[in-house]
Amino acid sequence: MDSERASALPPHVLIFPLPIQGPVKCMLKLAELFCINGLKVTFLNSQHIQRCLSSCTNTESYFQRYPNFRFETVPDGLPEDNPRTVNEFFEMLDSMKAVGVPLFREMVTSGPYGPNSENPITCIVADGAFCFAVDIAKQIGVPLLYFDTMSPCCVWTYLCLPKLIEAGEVPFKGDNLDEIVVNAPGKEGFLRRRDLPGFYRTKDLNDPNIQSVLKENRNLPLSQGLILNTFEELDASILSEMSKVCPKIYAVGPLHTHVKTRLRTGTTSNSILKEDRSCIPWLDMQPLKSVLFVSIGSLAVMTKEQLMEIWYGLVNSGTRFLWVRRPGSVVGLDKEFEISMDFSQATKERGYIVSWAPQEEVLAHPAIGGFLTHSGWNSTLESIVEGKPMICWPYYVDQQVNSRYVGEFWKLGLDMKDICDRVKVEGMIKELMELKKDEFCRRANHLANIAKASVHEGGSSYKNLDQLIQDIKSMTF
Ligand code: UDP
To answer: Does the keyword section mention Glycosyltransferase (predicted)?
Structure first.
């Protein structure tokens, strides 16, 4: 597209998230912020995600609120009954690349959003894992911004990977996972091998996860900028390290709070699973800060044995709890144990179990005193904003890094990484909910206030979003 035509067009951003709950949710928040600020947005979902979203949330509300917003879809190439679990992530990505991406390319080159159409795209925002976006943006002559929806501390460990390999730190030599890593994350020096993304434990550099990170690293400088769901005050040192090797960085989070603040009302939940809201009236009846919220997000799974260790640790702690038992999240769960959880004395007296919760609202509830989490980045940010201390039991990708930051750097909770033992679980719950409750709550409240201030007028994320929007309006390729 020539620059004269580009600058005459109204800004029209195409947003393309990875087709999983976390990235879809936070990119939808970004889309709302763009629309509030006068940009036109086309949100490209896989057909599967769009079906889930439409059946679980009020997608009409987007069109009512934002006349300049529209959804588009491409198939992900998988049969509808494919479970699309985390273990088949590369199958899904490969299938998406083979089936959905050519359609996306056609859409923005010769199709309804092509340079010569009535409705041309003027900027692409794509998930950091979508390396193909560089070529497509180049072909149509529009700027590309990557959005890494995982934590910046993990993105930084990704960017350090070539150095780690060169220095012989990855693959790990020997089995000691407690050895301190020298070449990441920079100054702090508190990351152990076990705190790096789980797949860094591989002995094989041809591992698809490793190869995919190296490719993402090579692609990042070819984009015009990197959007991150964080606020400067939380990740100052990491952002400063990253800015030496990245294109322009825009820290505009926490996005869910940012949208609420700018709209001054609640937002659409963006959930692709049906929320069970009956837990809210139950929470209303519980004492202040007395309930531990237990959830491992939309993708993580645990074995039946791990479930039992966490369950008995929780029950033995005597704490009130709200437990999210997502269907399919326990491998080999037998009906008998499920029923014994549902009808146990502990659940009757002090617990509540749902299959999926309105998590943002739950974490904001005054009865919640702590969060036993898999340390997904959205969950971590949602907990930080609400000032809720965490017990971290990470599962994969950025979660191992996040949990170390929660425990050791931000000191907002306890990192249970790599351990799943009922005595340990019970001990940590008592430490978080009783013994060190005041200490953790004090720190969590302090950081929550900083997080909220960052998205108010004059705050760091508020200013960064304004800058991002200005840049999108003025950017030409
Ligand atoms: N979530 C929810 N209800 C639940 C559990 C999770 O709405 O019962 C939402 C949560 O608010 C978060 C997202 O699902 O925004 C999970 O994202 P995260 O990055 O924490 O983990 P992932 O699911 O990607 O592993």
So the answer is: yes
Q: How far is CA 109 from the centre of its chain?
A: 30
The predicted structure's pLDDT at residue 82: 85
Ligand 1 center from residue 451 Cα (angstroms) = 19
Q: What's the pLDDT band for 81 if we cut at 50, 70, 90?
A: confident
Q: State the alpha helices, DSSP H only, in 190-242.
A: 208-219, 236-242
DSSP string for residues in 347-414: HHHHEEEESS--HHHHHHSTTEEEEEE---HHHHHHHHHTT--EEE---STTHHHHHHIIIIIS--EE
- DSSP 8-state code for residue 10: P
Q: How far is the CA of 390 from the centre of ligand 1 (A)?
A: 15
The confidence score (pLDDT) of residue 8 equals: 65
Provide residues with CB under 6 Å of ligand 1. Answer: 21-22, 25, 271, 295, 297-300, 324, 356-357, 359-360, 376-379, 382
Chain Cα centroid distance, residue 290? 27
Vertex 429: Cα angle to 424 and 434 (nearest 5): 130
Q: Which two tokens stand for residue 68?
A: 């300049």
**Mean pLDDT confidence for 165-174:** 96
Please report the atom of ligand 1 found closest to the CA of residue 356: 8
Total-model pTM: 0.95
Alpha helices by DSSP H, listed for 220-367, are 236-242, 255-263, 279-284, 304-317, 335-342, 345-350, 359-364
Return the best residue to mutate from 379, 381, 397 for the ligand 1 pocket (most ligand atoms within 8 A of CB): 379
By the 8 A CB rule, do 381 and 229 touch? yes
136's tokens = 């497509």
Q: Give the mean pLDDT of 377-406.
A: 96
Residues found in the chain: 477
Find how far residue 188's CA is from the centre of its chain.
Answer: 23
89-119: pLDDT as tens digits: 888 889 999 999 999 999 999 999 999 999 9
Quick one: pLDDT at residue 385? 98
